Hints:
Shape: globular
Helix content: 40-55%
CATH architecture: Orthogonal Bundle
Radius of gyration: 20 Å
CATH class: Mainly Alpha
Structural class: alpha+beta
Strand content: 5-15%
Amino acid sequence: MAASAVPENIGLPESAxxxxxxxxxxxxxxxxxxxxxxxxxxFQPRPLDSSTTPAIISRYDDVLAVxxxxxxxxxxEIPPALFPLDDRHCIMxxxxxxxxxxxxxxxxxxxxxxxxSTDRTRRFTRTLTGMLLARLMNEPPPWNLSRVIDDVSMRVxxxxxxxxxxLLVHAVRLRQLWHEAGAASDGYxxxxxxxxxxxxxxxxxxxxHDLPDGLARHLxxxxxxxxxxxxxxxxxxxxxxxxxETQAASAASLIxxxxxxxxxxxxxxxxxxxxxxxxxVAEGSRRGLSFPTNLMTPSRPVTIDGQxxxxxxxVLVSYAAANMDxxxxxxxxxxxxxxxxxxTHLAFGQGPHRCQxxxxxxxxxxxVLVAMxxxxxxxxxxxxxxxxxxxxxxxxxxIPRLLxxxxxxx
Length: 410
């Protein structure tokens, strides 16, 4: 998500710095651009196969049609019959996962993030990345870059996007609690309510009058003026907090793929060329695996590829597969290569639900990448046989282990 302001002083409290990212027993060691074979339907575009449960829409044109949805067929809000309202994690009530007028009203409360990050926030991101990376490199290699990326992402969200200082001392715990939900083996239906997560977010409302004049205070004001309910406030705050994970996974995926494909040196040279850096970040989003699918439900029967999907049945819409559709991206669409200019991708969605934090997320990835290219040794390599440890069971495919070390003799 985008950041809007920045603290004048960057501190490094031991309790909130370089925490080891959590991972489950189901995490896999994979090449950065690789996915498990059983997940092929999420990543390989093909005509609709309604025999799968749930059905998966995966071709670029089909996915785009769902996102644009001129007939208002597709629902983002998960029906109570599929998942009881009282049991849901609070972020499932945020604007991004709602429909109709409620979605539009709550979306307007986040207008501040549409423009992306300020110059001060971008300096904060690069400076903090450099400071934490220097601390990490005081340890013997291999260095787990995810420790830096995850911490920087969470601090940017709390201190710059939300400007919610009361949450900072709870940053590590918020990460742990969200990981329990986001990496649940049953995906969206593992998003059970976490009272402790919501209790920490409640600190924003309890200390409302002491907050800086930023997004967190603005959201509480919207609640107090009747624009949203207390539950919707918690949902909006929760969605912003957990966005740290997707942008961190995007940055880690991109760095891993650059190393996997021997393009680290190319990326170092590209830092002096804005258009080349734009292509690198865009290709990281297109080919990254940070958030592969979204759950939607048709409000009435809909026919795709000659097959009819019944009303009310959940359907997975695969951004990842659409972004590797050879009809859109050419014969080598599944290969990571940031050097050519490619068509626009769907990693941030399209239409009325397009991610409001797109610009800020891309800026974050570029800033973290530039800071690491500047400070890491000239020639580093992926450890663990060129693989990263990736969560693959939940809704966000994080990378808790991105291990690198200097190449021998460099």
